[in-house]
Every structure is written in C-alpha cells, then in structure tokens.
Amino acid sequence: MKPLPPSPPNHPPAALTDNNSIDETGTESPFKGNIGIKRAYYALFHSCNGLMLAIRHESAFRQELTLAILLLPVALLLPVTAVERVLLIGSVILVLIVELLNSSVEAAIDRISLERHRLSKRAKDLGSAAVLLALALCLLTWGCLAGPICVSLLKNGL
User: Fold this and answer.
1) What does the alpha-carbon distance between residue 148 and residue 129 come to, in Å, rounded to a whole number?
2) What is the model's pTM?
3) Bridge-partner residues for 22, per DSSP?
4) Binding site annotation covers 122?
5) Residue 116 annotated as binding?
6) What digits encode the pLDDT tens for the residues 88-120?
7) Is 61 annotated to bind ligand?
8) Does residue 64 have a known ligand-binding role?
9) Residues 78 and 143 occupy one common structural domain
10) Residue 118 is assigned to a ligand binding site
11) Number of domains in the chain
12) 3-state helix, strand, coil in the chain (%, to 5)
C-alpha cells in the first residue's frame, strides 16, 4: 500500500504571496513587518543612515568619498564615450561599495569580540584585500581611459 501524499499547507507558499514577512516555512518573521511602499521608505531610510554612519565613523570611507567627489565631475567632463563614462563612474562607486562591505564585516567582527583571533584577522584581511582590488581596478580604469586624454591635454596646453 502506498503512503498518502503529504497534505497541502493551509496557506500558499511564501513565494506566491505578496507578504514578504512570511518565510519559506510559512511562518511570519518577527523581523519583517513592512511591505510595499512603506518597506521601500524604511529601506531608503536605513540605507541613508548607513551612509551617514560610514561618513561619521569610517576614515577610509571618508577618504574614498573625497576621491569620488573629485573624480565624478571629471568623469562627467571628460570627452569619452557613454560606455567609457559609465566605466569611470562605476569603478569609483565600486570602491565605495566594497569599502562599505568591508566596514560592515569589520563592525560585525568587532561586535562579536575585540579579542584577537586568527579567523577574525583573516576576515578583516580578506575585506581589506577586496578594497585593494577595487582600488586597483579603479586606478586601471582611470589610467586606461582618462590617462591618455589628460596626457594629451597637458601636452597641447589646457
């Protein structure tokens, strides 16, 4: 005799509902209460708060933000194609994104313990390496795309 198939749940799967507060087990998450435009508003609020915290507490982010404030107008003024402009701007923004992620990893590790541990060091070093690679990509992008234009402008006189 074949066993009976499992009875269907009393509610549709979470993926089929428009309520984001129901998790994959079908139970409501106590951590998700907002849906729709209200959720988008709070997400924007928390994102802006995160940027302000990074500016206030992360010196590396402030340095890279200063670099971005200097480079982004240059990217808009350089005589390059639209794709090259996106690459210039994107490489700068990528540095900021990776720095935010690195800072969040460091904050989470420091929250767990300020005690020195080899795994904490590894995580922090990996985050730092990610920032280094993003900076190298930015430098390479700007060197290849803006470098020749700047050299030409300097040779011919601004």
Assistant:
1) 28
2) 0.78
3) 28
4) no
5) yes
6) 999 999 999 999 999 999 999 999 998 999 999
7) yes
8) yes
9) yes
10) no
11) 2
12) 70, 0, 25
What's the per-residue H, E or C state across 31-61?
A: CCCCCHHHHHHHHHHHHHHHHHHHHHHCHHH
Using only C-alpha atoms, what is the Rg of the chain?
23
Contact yes or no for 145/87 (Cβ under 8 A): yes
Residue 22, helix vs strand vs coil:
strand
Within a domain: residue 49? yes
Active site residue 28: no
| 115 annotated ligand binder | yes
Question: Which is the catalytic residue, given 24, 28, 84, 99?
Answer: 99
Residue 118 lies in a domain: yes
Q: Are 68 and 95 in contact (CB under 8 A)?
A: yes
Query: Residue 3 domain-assigned?
Result: no
pLDDT at position 82: 98
Distance CA 63, CA 71 (A): 12
Question: pLDDT below 50 — which residues of the chain?
Answer: 12-17
CA-to-CA distance for 90 and 97, rounded, in angstroms?
A: 10
Q: Taking the chain, what is the end-to-end CA distance rounded to the nearest angstrom? A: 88
- The phi and psi torsions of 2 (rounded to 5 degrees) equal -80, 145
| Three-state DSSP state, 116 | coil
Domain that holds residue 145: 59-158
CA distance 117 to 136: 28
